[in-house]
Amino acid sequence: MTDVTKIEQIVDRHGRSRDHLTAILLDCQEEFLHLPREVIETVAARVKAPVTQVLGIATFFRAFSLKPVGRHRIHVCMGTACHVQGAQRLLEAVSRELGIQKGETTPDMQFSLDTVNCLGCCGLAPAVTVNTDVHGKLKQTAIPRMLRKYVKDYKARTH
Amino acid sequence: MAFRSHVLVCAGTGCVSCGSFDLGAALEREIASRGLADEIQVVRTGCQGFCAEGPVLVVQPDEVFYCGLKTSDVATLVEEHLLKGRPVRKLMYTPPSAPAPVPKLSQIPFFAKQKLVVLRNRGLVDPERIDDYIARDGYEALAKAVTELTPEEIIREIKLSGLRGRGGGGFPTGVKWATCRQAALHRGVEPVIVCNADEGDPGAFMDRSIIESDPHAVIEGMAIGARAIGARQGFVYIRHEYPIARERLAKALDQARDYGLLGRGILGTKFDFDISVVQGAGAFVCGESTALMASLEGKAGEPRAKYIHTVEYGYKNLPTNLNNVETWANVPLIISRGAAWFASMGSGDVSENPWNGSSGTKVFSLVGKVNNTGLIEVPMGITLREIIFGIGGGIPRGRAFKAVQTGGPSGGCLPATHLDMPVDFDSLTAAGSMMGSGGMIVMDDQTCMVDVARYFIAFLTEESCGKCIPCREGLRCSLDVLTRITEGKGEEGDIALLEEMGAVMQDACLCALGSSAPNPVMSTLRYFRDEYEAHVRERRCPAGVCKALITYTIDQALCDGCHACVTACSTGAITGQVKYPHQLNQSLCIKCGACLDACKRNAVLRA
To answer: For residue B97, what pLDDT is reported?
Structure first.
């Protein structure tokens, strides 16, 4: 259950202004890790905007997710520098290792897998982030070791 | 307190990812435990540019550059260099073809061939301390702009400098400022200025690095612009993917306010100006001016038709002047050193008309298949060869240069025949690419140009906002055709179809995202048509990238049976006894390339 007072606090911090809807939703996303229906509706009511406008923003930008995400969020960088260094193969390898596709979360809610357009650390290509940690110059063969840092027995849990 | 020595540790995103915060903390501990805390200061600087060798640091005043450091190297470094004054050779940088390490920063080719204007303070100031910036003549230009110059004089100086927009378009900055000022005066409303820090081009990180290493340069540039245009309100629209940059910018703004350099009555005059930071939420199209302004207003970032320009009706219908981070950061130096100094760098003659050349310098992120990846600043008009081979140190593992991609998804790929072309706005456009914001991605012979074109089109298909049909459907259709070609299912006529679609999109799309979207396809077709034809007619990927068209094999003569590939293979396709050459079963192989990564003897072949 999402804490309604928390949502209201976030909206109030931004002056209940429609101009700040994106900022409000970014804070909500950070707080709740996704934007469930209550968040969208509470925000809309409090800034006096139609729910469609709030939902429009929530689905337009990549930073928002309407579905719950896992405890550890993996983002494979798909920037150009990473692409020429084999980012696609890396994404497929993480996907095989966890048994989930891009945009999905493992059933035990430990890992979510997604891509990001460019992290801006192209000198470290190919790069992957897990939460806020950057793993640069990553080889396919190093993926299991990287995952074990976050969930020791991920293999037993996901397969 | 005066220190006899400073250790300048890079704290840009690249080095931070490689552990530079831990390194800095370890250095401080070691220095304190040796009783040197009063003599040697550790400073965390913004990105020093040499991201390939991170984490890096420089010891001043000796100017010795160290790279690839681990916390376990700290004891040696402090003991030998800082205590006994003997620089540690084994921790220094050795250029790829050099026989011995090069100790001094200014002697390393990567640094020696650059010309620092925008990045003048890189690695020399702590971006979180305004006093460091002021000590390097920071805010002197703002003082001059508010006390000595009229708004018209500032605009005239910027026009004469020939400065053109660094965000990609290359529109003369002074002309834009003048138009915005005029529009505001004409309508009797207050204009707004905006800094575009929504750096969306994949493979580009100049703007992030400028904010991370020298945020006050951007703030000062904006304040000067506000004074010239007559604005009291400014925004920085910044990507939410850049947390360190955002944090440093917020700190810098607070400090500038404390010092009376922002806010009401700046420097004791009647000039009021302040800046708010607005976060993007991950949409490439928001780099486009009208989409950015929609997003600033808290709406979804969809562009509109530009028959009325944003300098007249932009944010909340006010005249809005939008410039990129690097453009703003150029402004203070033009005001303090003068337009003539700025115009003396670069190519062409801009004294009459800024469209006649490209003055000043440009910051590039040099990445991809190049030895020295990192952030560089060079004078406009330098050749691609000097950048890629002089500064970049050439292609890794002695492979052949194939192409360089500039301009992001709206740019193009230039082949080896263009290596001696000067890098400026107009030459790049004439060659079918563009300056863009400054991403420069080097590709070697193992990069498939059809795959690269497909990559950009896939990127743009996802980022197209969907408002206009030529962009939304044109991209989707182009992607289908390119995917078919890379999967070995291309048909005669596909290439002609791509060209036809590209021509329609160039004419009919609503905003620049769509009208420039065909560039990656058009430029690769122009220079690498034979690769497309090999995919379609011979079902062959010459670079060995397109999965459907390649096979992996094990060279029986080279394989020593170390078993590394067997462990790496997730499908059990590789079998063999330890110490005997292994076999690869093609029917089980999913072509993931894990064996190739794992093999230390280059015995896995991809063709």
So the answer is: 77
Query: Could you report the per-residue pLDDT of B68-85, keeping only the tens digit for each?
Result: 999 999 999 999 999 999
Residue A2 in this model has a pLDDT that exceeds 70: no
Put simply, the chain A residues between 71 and 130 with a CB less than 8 A from any chain B CB are: 78-81, 83-86, 89, 92-93, 96-97, 116-125, 127
pLDDT tens column, B287-344: 899 999 999 998 999 998 888 899 999 999 999 999 999 999 999 999 999 999 999 9
* pLDDT above 90: residue A50: yes
Q: With a CB-CB cutoff of 8 Å, which residues 2-21 of chain A face chain B?
A: 17-21
- Whether A144 contacts chain B with CB within 8 A: no
**What is the CATH classification number for the domain harbouring A103?**
3.40.30.10
What is the CB-side half-sphere exposure of residue B50 using CA atoms within 13 A?
26
Q: Is B271 in contact with B265 (CB distance < 8 Å)?
A: yes
CB B548: neighbour CB atoms within 10 A? 12
**Amino acid in the structure at residue B561:** G
Q: What is the mean predicted confidence (pLDDT) over B521-530?
A: 96
The pair of structure tokens assigned to B470 is 């030529």
Identify whether residues A82 and A146 lie together within a single domain. yes
Rounded to whole angstroms, the Cα distance separating B440 from B387 reads: 10
Question: Is residue B438 a contact partner of residue B423, using CB atoms and an 8 Å limit?
Answer: no
- Whether A61 sits inside 8 A of B54 (CB atoms) is no
Give me the interface pTM, i.e. the ipTM: 0.89
Q: What is the DSSP letter of B405?
A: E
pTM score: 0.92
Question: Which SS3 state, helix, strand or coil, does residue B490 take?
Answer: coil
B375-393 residue pLDDT tens: 999 999 999 999 999 999 9
| Pair (B73, B215) in one structural domain | no
Owning domain of residue B569 = 551-606
Residue at B383 is within a domain? no
CATH code (residue B234):
3.40.50.11540
Tokens of B392: 């970049």
Q: Which residues of A touch B51 (CB under 8 A)?
A: 121-124
pLDDT of residue A1: 52
**B14: nearest CA partner in chain A:** A121
- Split into its structural domains, chain B has a count of 4
CB count in 10 Å sphere of residue B320: 28
Residues A104, A53 share a domain: no
**Cβ neighbours of A102 (radius 10 Å):** 15
Number of domains in chain A: 2
Q: How far is CA B502 from CA B218, B338, B428, B479, B519, in A?
A: 37, 43, 19, 12, 8
The residue from A38, A60, A82 where one domain ends is A60
